[in-house]
Write a structure and sequence with these properties.
Layout: H1 11-20, E1 23-28, E2 31-41, E3 45-48, E4 51-54, E5 59-62
């Protein structure tokens, strides 16, 4: 289970966040982009409430309790 502030990199981290509706923050080059609940994930993209984010271009950070 990832803790608050952990960077999500593994498929199981994203699956945990989907299963328990744990919010994530998304950054690009240390610039905040969005926060919300992950609705889908595959090896290349993360879907956050209808918007796709490339896993290679963005950083995903766990935000439980947000």
């Amino acid at each position: 289970m990832p803790h608050q502030g952990d960077i999500l990199t593994l498929q199981r981290h994203f699956q945990y966040h989907i299963q328990y509706a744990v919010p994530v923050e998304i950054y690009k080059d240390d610039v905040f982009v969005a926060i919300g609940v992950v609705t889908a994930v595959d090896e290349g993209f993360v879907e956050l409430q209808g918007t796709l984010y490339n896993r290679g271009l963005f950083t995903f950070i766990s935000r439980p309790g947000y």
